[in-house]
From TrEMBL:
This is YCII-related domain-containing protein. Belongs to the YciI family. It comes from Micromonospora lupini str. Lupac 08. Gene3D superfamilies: Dimeric alpha+beta barrel. Residues 3-105 form the YCII-related domain. PANTHER family: BLL7171 PROTEIN (PTHR35174:SF3), BLL7171 PROTEIN-RELATED (PTHR35174).
Length: 111
């Protein structure tokens, strides 16, 4: 089961003083197990562009977007047996303590 894992900042990070897990080790472990299919860090919100069409008109806005307090800073595409395994993979990600991780399964469009 494939999940998009959005890596986000959070306004209330964990205050645990223990050292954060190493992101390079997390990536290497999950890549070697075939659970992480791809992932990357995103450019800052100042590089963001929003595209919308309203009443047939193209509306383009460039970041940063002032109303944004929690920002998607990266992503990982993971392949797990089920949601429980995906939660365990997310739990060990360093940003689980410094930010938040959103797991979203891909929709089955064949149904």
């Amino acid at each position: 089961m494939k999940f998009m894992m959005f890596v986000c900042t959070d306004t209330a990070p964990d205050t645990d003083p223990t050292e954060l897990p190493d992101i390079h080790k997390w990536v290497a472990e999950n890549d070697s197990r075939g659970r992480r299919l791809t992932g990357n860090v995103l450019a800052p919100t100042s590089a963001a562009t929003m595209v919308r069409v309203r009443d047939g008109e193209l509306l383009v806005s460039e970041g940063p977007f002032a109303e944004t307090t929690e920002v998607i800073v990266g992503f990982d595409l993971i392949d797990c047996a089920d949601l429980d395994e995906a939660i365990e993979v997310a739990r060990t990600h360093p940003m689980a303590r410094e930010g938040r991780l959103e797991l979203r399964p891909f929709a089955d469009l064949s149904a």
